[in-house]
Amino acid sequence: MARVTASGPPETPVTRRAARALREEADGRARDTRSDDARAFSPFVLPDDLVGPDMRPASLARPGGPPAGVFAPRHAGRRRLTRAGVVGVIAVAGVLLAGSTAAVTALVSGAQPAAVAATAPVLEPPPNVDRLPVPRVEQKPVSNDICAKPDVIAALEAHDDAGAILAAGGGEAFRAAVAAGAASCVDLDDPTRLWVVVNKHRQYVPIDYWPAGLMFPDGVRSLEGGSLRSDASAAMTAMVTAAREAGVGEIALLSAFRSYPSQEDTYGRHVAARGQEGADQVSARPGYSEHQSGLAGDVVPCAGTCGSLDDLAGSPQGDWVAAHSWEYGWIVRYADGATDVTGYLPEPWHLRYIGPELARTYHDGAWTSLEAFFGLEAAPNYVE
Ligand SMILES: [Zn+2]
Question: What are the structural domains of the chain?
Answer without folding.
Answer: 13-131 (no CATH), 141-186 (no CATH), 188-373 (3.30.1380.10)
